[in-house]
Structures are given as C-alpha cells and as structure tokens.
Amino acid sequence: MVGSNVQNVYASALFEIGVDNNLLIQFEEELGVVSDILAEEGDLKLYLDSQGISKESKKSFISRVFSGNLNDFLVNFIKVTIDNDRQHLISGIYYSLIQMIDVEMNRQRVTIISSIKLDESILERIKDAVAKTLAKNIIIDELIDELILGGIIIKIGDLVIDGSLAKDLQNMKKKLLYCKVRSDGIYED
Question: Is the pTM for the entire model greater than 0.85?
Fold first, then answer.
C-alpha cells in the first residue's frame, strides 16, 4: 500500500505540472508509451532497477533515449524517479495519473467484453447510452474473451453488468442442481 501512496504523490506532481503547462494529454500519451516500453522490455526494466548501475548512468541513458522524443518535463520527471529510487513505480504513477486526468476531464472508462469483435455501431450505441446515463465522456476499452460464449459484459468502475451466455448457463446449472423434484412424479416400470 505504501507504493500506492507514493505513486499518487508523484502522479499529483506530474498532474499539476500538466495542468499549469496545458500538457495533460501529452503526459497521458507519453507516460503511457514509457509504461508500455517498461512492461514489454524486461532488459530495460532490469537495467533501471539494477543497484549495480549508477543513477547518473541511468539518467544519462534516459536522456539519450527519450530527449527529443518526450516532453522535457517528462524526461526530467523520469530522472527524478531514478534519483529517488522510484523508477519501478512508473507504471503505477501512470495509472494514478490517468485516474486524475479522467476526473479532471469528466471521463469514464468502460470495458466491454464479448466473445467476438463488436460492430462499431453497437459500441457507439453502448457508449451513447452510458454517456447519457452518467453524463460523462466515455472511453471504451473492448476486450475479446471467447470463454463467455456470447453476449457481453460491461464494466463501469466497480459495476459489472454481465449479459454473457456463460453466466446464463451457470445460473441455469445452479437452478437445476438446487431445484426439488416431487417424489410422486417419479416412477419406474
């Protein structure tokens, strides 16, 4: 839980810089790229987390790789995380920053899970309905999960609306297992 508090502090600092300099969207995109690179490139993460490599060497590497490709504020921010041995929290900082930006921009993230890729018109209808209900700008994240067999599952924050065929079959199974059969209706020849 300590990591969560620390990443919120770093995200808040980056958020304030973004608001003051009108860079929130750019920070969102660029820190997302850095977070993805760290998740995909195990060697880079290992390099940055290694205690045997000096902080100056790590910061120099960050400058060579990201200067000119990322906003200078963001490059310096990454260097500050290295100075404070917090570079391992960059993905968590990104997640916290996204939450803050979502609140600032009145956005709500909605995950839609289906067994096949949904038609854009269906996604738009869902997006419009949720936007109208919540009075927020909706960001759709579509996931494909063949295990749900059919239908869709919609996740809005902590709310889960499960309209999947797999859930219906599971409910039907439970009902059949727990239903009582009258004994006078059963007979053998």
Answer: no
